[in-house]
Amino acid sequence: MKRSALPATASGQSGPAANWNPRSTAFKLLDSEPNEFVFGSWKNVLIAVWKSQATAPMVERLKRTIDVMSERTSGYRSNVHVIVEGAALPSAEARAALVELMKRNRDALACVAIVVDGRGFWSSALRGAMTGLRVLAPTSFDFYVAATVDNVVNWLPAVHEQRTGVKMDPAELGEVLRAALSSPD
Q: CA 110, 48, 74: angle at the middle one, nearest 5?
C-alpha cells in the first residue's frame, strides 16, 4: 500500500500536501511505495531512496514530487538520490526520464548527488552508469556520484550553501539521509 503526503486529486494525480513546510528541519515523507522507493524533503533538498530498480512509472511519481517542491520552495534546490545495495540498474526508460527531469529542472537545481550504496562489481558498475548520466545531463548544476552517505554529507553542505544560500549542518544532513533510508516504506 502506497503512503503519500501528495493527496490524490479528482483526476487521481497527486498534489501538494496542505500542511507541507518546505523549510522544515525534519525529513518529510512525500511519496513512497513499499520496497520500491521513498521520496521526501528536508529544507530545500529532495531526497529519493531507490530500494528497487527505478522504472518509468516511478520516475513519473518523482516528477510529481519535484513539482510539489517547485511550487512550495522558491530558489534553487539540491537532489540526493540513494540507490540501496541490490537495487538493479534503472530501466532504460527510467534513465531517459531521469535525464529529461534534469534537463527540465536545470534552472532550479543547485546540486545532484547520487549514492550507490554497496561494494564490489555491482556498485562499481552502477556508479559508472550513474556517472554516464552526467554526459547527457545539463552542466548548470554540480553533479556528484558517491559510494556512501558520508561522502555526500562531506560534499553537499558547502556546495549547496554556495549555490543556494541555504546553510545545512552536515551532522543533521546525515541524520536526515539515514532517516530516509530507514523509512519503512
A: 40
For 8, other C-beta atoms within 10 Å of its C-beta total 10
What's the pTM?
0.83
- Here the CATH number for the domain that contains residue 78 is 3.30.750.24
pLDDT the model gives residue 27: 87
Q: What domain range is 174 assigned to?
A: 24-181
Contacts of 49 (CB under 8 A, 6+ apart): 37, 38, 39, 81, 82, 84, 180, 181, 183
63 falls within a domain = yes
Residue ranges of E strands in the chain: 3-4, 28-33, 37-42, 45-50, 77-83, 109-116, 142-146
| Residue 152 or residue 105, greater confidence | 152
Cell triple for residue 130? 550513474
Whether the CB-CB separation of 47 and 39 falls below 8 Å is answered with yes
The residue among 86, 69, 90 whose CA lies nearest residue 78 is 69
